[in-house]
Design goal:
Largest sheet: none
Order of helices and strands: HHHHH
Shape: elongated
Number of domains: 2
Number of helices: 5
Structural class: mainly alpha
Number of strands: 0
Strand content: under 5%
């Protein structure tokens, strides 16, 4: 770059003062300053754009590397699964040929005939298992009541000798 020291800037300022004149020098200086500022912003924008493009290219390269690694892992998994499936099929087919009845003789442990039922308790059994004092303490309803019966129960009582509708 150009090496501008204080002495060189003073010489340029003196020449500009003589050539341009003292009346127009401030306006020209503002214009030159604005142009230099625009040039710096443009250069900074170009630098930022170039750095973004470089980073984007690096990210694209990393993405392709990760995708390739994922494909390699997927291929390895599929290969192992197919090998294990083939070995299992060969083992099962070998057992079926060895048995005289033609069956495999293999009974899985999850077979329904061997499964012990652990069924859950019904709601009524659970409700009956609670003691009555606990139900009263917890305000558990003991019986169902219809809407009309509930209204009648909570309606204010009529005074002596007159009905509710008087």
């Amino acid at each position: 770059m150009i090496d501008l020291g204080i002495s060189k800037l003073a010489l340029i300022g003196a020449v500009a003062l003589i050539v341009i004149g003292p009346e127009r020098l401030p306006k020209v200086a503002r214009t030159v300053g604005a142009l230099v500022g625009r040039a710096q912003r443009y250069i900074n924008d170009v630098k930022a754009e170039v750095s973004r493009e470089v980073e984007l290219e690096e990210l694209r390269k990393m993405r392709t590397e990760f995708e390739e690694a994922a494909r390699d892992v997927e291929r390895t998994i599929h290969k192992e699964v197919s090998e294990q499936t083939q070995a299992l099929n060969e083992a099962l087919s070998g057992e079926s040929h060895a048995e005289p009845g033609g069956g495999t003789g293999y009974v899985p442990s999850w077979d329904a005939a061997h499964k012990v039922r652990t069924g859950r308790k019904s709601w009524r059994v659970k409700q009956g298992a609670r003691p009555l004092w606990f139900k009263r303490q917890q305000n558990v309803r003991m019986w169902a009541q219809s809407g009309a019966a509930r209204v009648k129960r909570h309606r204010p009582a009529a005074g002596p000798g007159r009905s509710f509708f008087d």
